[in-house]
Every structure is written in C-alpha cells, then in structure tokens.
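Appendix C: a fully annotated inverse folding record. The material below is reproduced so that readers can follow the format used throughout the book. The structure is listed first as tokens, followed by the designed sequence.
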C-alpha cells in the first residue's frame, strides 16, 4: 500500500437474542448487492463474514497480509479483529453472510477459517444465502437453530474447498518440479515409476496429474523434449548418429522413426535444410 490507510470500527451489528447466545453461533445479517465504490478505509468488522464475488473482480486488503487480487468465484473471509477492505475494479456483484459467537472463534482456532481468499467452486456462500431467505427476519427458535446449521455447513464446505485448493497447488508445484527436471536433461532414461515414487504419488495419479498439467502423458512429454533437443543439435550440424546417442536413443533407427513421427519430416531432410 502506498500510504497508511485509516482504520474504523464497524458499529453495524445487532444484539443476539438469549437463545442465540446459548447456541454459541448466530447470524448477524446476510445480503447481496452490486457495488462500484471503494471505501478508502480499513474496517474492523467485529464479526466473521464470508463475501462471495458472483460477478466482476477487485482487491481484498488485509492489514495482516497485504493486498490480494480477487475475481468472480472467489470467497473472502473477514475476521473480527483484523482490519480489512475490499472493493471492485469497476463493478462487482457480491453476496455476504455475517456471523458471530464463541463457537465461530473456536472453529477459527481449529483452522476452519484459516485462508482469507480462495475459490468457492461449490458456491457454498451463495447456497447458504439462498437457504436462509425463507427464514430471514424470523426469530423463533427453529429458525435460529436452522440458521446456525446452515452457517456451520457452509464453513465446513468452505474449509474443504480451501483444503482441496491447497492440494491442487501442491500438485502443481510437484508437476512443475518434475517438468523442470525433464526439460533440463531430456536425454536421460527416465522411469515414470521412479518419477512418481519421487513425488510420493501413485503411478496412476501421477499420470493423471501430468496429463492435466501438460496435456501429454509423461512418455509423450519426454519424447517431445528429446525431439526438441534433437532438432537443436541437428540444426547445429551434429550427425544423426551423434544426435540420437546424446538424446538418449540407443537405436538410431528408432530415433529416425520417432523423429519423423513427431515432426513430419525425416531427420536427414531436417539436418540438410
């Protein structure tokens, strides 16, 4: 941030009923809106909130961890004591649920609200918001208990989505490391089984992740890297035999067949161009 932002404390919240206090978690408010404004100040909400961006993109600022870009499909978690600010780039539509209570703090301490921004791929906030519409404003015990149930289910779904995103991120790092290893030395005789074992991933899952990340099977990708290296060497004037050997092909005829299949031209014609 270029300058120190002013911080204000929110005073907009209702006093929970006695039964809500006994339950330990209550819904303060829900809402949806189209907005284009920038508050220009960090706010201490005093409660928890889940804000789902339905359309548009923007920025989420937490004093504790800085600025984060957000877009449609993301959910922003607001914490009671952390100054925050969020605003659209242009205009966005958002849906929010605000809640409080000691059970909320317990869930936070247990890690169920640990990640401030992530993809809400199941639209958990939107579903929870829609589920509460028919009991909005009702203060009977059944409705109060139903709202608590909806919020707890939403928190659980959001936690699972956050954890899944972390796994996907870890898988991406693993694949990038493997791809960098292959790209650095494509001439090696790589064992797909050993690459999977090094990554602590089952062979079947390793193949599935590799295809999802590169669009090719591990075998196809390795061969493609070998051919890229081969084209470079042939362009530099290396012989077909020498190129085949340095690219990890023990059989020069297999190399020539593979080269034509991958490039659509024979190695001899390619080197003579």
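Designed amino acids, in order:
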């Amino acid at each position: 941030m270029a300058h120190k932002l002013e911080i204000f404390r929110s005073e907009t919240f209702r006093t929970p009923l006695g039964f809500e206090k006994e339950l330990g978690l209550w819904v303060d408010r829900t809402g949806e809106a189209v907005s284009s404004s920038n508050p220009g100040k960090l706010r201490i909400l005093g409660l928890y909130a889940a804000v789902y961006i339905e359309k548009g993109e923007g920025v989420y600022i937490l004093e504790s961890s800085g600025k984060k870009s957000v877009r449609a499909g993301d959910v922003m978690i607001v914490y009671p004591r952390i100054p925050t600010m969020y605003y659209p780039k242009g205009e966005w539509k958002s849906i929010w649920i605000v809640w409080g209570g000691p059970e909320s703090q317990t869930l936070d301490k247990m890690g169920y609200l640990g990640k401030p921004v992530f993809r809400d791929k199941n639209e958990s906030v939107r579903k929870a918001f829609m589920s509460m519409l028919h009991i909005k404003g009702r203060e009977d015990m059944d409705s109060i208990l139903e709202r608590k149930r909806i919020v707890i289910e939403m928190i659980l779904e959001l936690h699972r989505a956050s954890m899944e995103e972390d796994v996907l991120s870890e898988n991406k790092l693993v694949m990038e490391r493997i791809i960098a290893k292959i790209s650095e030395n494509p001439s090696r005789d790589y064992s797909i089984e050993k690459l999977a074992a090094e990554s602590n991933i089952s062979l079947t899952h390793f193949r599935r992740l590799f295809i999802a990340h590169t669009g090719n099977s591990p075998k196809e990708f390795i061969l493609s890297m070998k051919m890229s290296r081969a084209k470079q060497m042939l362009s530099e004037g290396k012989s077909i035999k020498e190129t085949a050997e340095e690219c990890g092909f023990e059989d020069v005829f297999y190399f020539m067949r593979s080269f034509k299949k991958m490039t659509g031209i024979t190695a001899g014609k390619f080197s003579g161009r």
